[in-house]
Design brief:
Number of strands: 0
Largest sheet: none
Shape: elongated
Helix content: 55-70%
Strand content: under 5%
Order of helices and strands: HHHHHHHHHHH
């Protein structure tokens, strides 16, 4: 079953997101296959460590108790140290949508949020964090709706983004400014001012 689940090999490296993704995928695979035995988890995970990570594993075997918890701790200390986790936590806190599409932003938000779980501990907190990081023009249109379901909030933000883009394209096609507002010419401004 494990071979058909296609667990990825891990070769080491300095990208903490990839490290965390590999470990998370490994745990999900073990859970899906109901592999609960800690020693078996260590043996199977070790098999998928190649290159530098494989060498680290050989070295760590003599120093680390062969329990899953000890393996995860040693693995994280080596490839995802506290300084890297804190940097990614800060990256999540500083994350803003800026020029990303809602879809791109949601991927970045989901990827980084796992490094600050206390900020997204409930569905409501996750929605609040997502909302406050949106572009202002999207935030103003979704914030008042008090959407506390994350998937619905993402869909609403994407809908606002699409309708806003269509509105801008439509106003440009009609030859108006990007705001689509009425701007009186000088002659009509003078007419209004002479009546006051």
């Amino acid at each position: 079953d494990l071979l058909s689940a296609k667990l990825d090999e891990f070769h080491g490296g300095l990208d903490p997101k990839k490290v965390d993704e590999w470990l998370e995928q490994t745990v999900k695979t073990f859970d899906m296959l109901h592999i609960d035995d800690g020693k078996l988890r260590v043996t199977l995970a070790s098999y998928y460590l190649k290159g530098d990570a494989g060498q680290w594993c050989k070295y760590a075997k003599g120093r680390v108790t062969p329990t899953w918890e000890a393996f995860v701790m040693a693995f994280q200390d080596k490839y995802l140290p506290p300084t890297a986790r804190e940097r990614l936590r800060q990256e999540f806190q500083d994350l803003k949508q800026l020029n990303m599409s809602v879809a791109e932003f949601e991927v970045a938000f989901s990827s980084l949020s796992r490094f600050a779980p206390e900020l997204v501990v409930t569905e409501e907190r996750r929605c609040i964090e997502f909302e406050k990081k949106l572009q202002t023009k999207i935030l103003f249109k979704v914030a008042g709706n008090m959407i506390w379901n994350y998937d619905r909030l993402v869909k609403a933000a994407a809908y606002v983004e699409i309708t806003e883009e269509e509105r801008i394209r439509g106003s440009r096609a009609r030859g108006q400014g990007s705001q689509g507002d009425y701007r009186p010419n000088k002659k009509s401004r003078n007419t209004f001012s002479s009546q006051s």
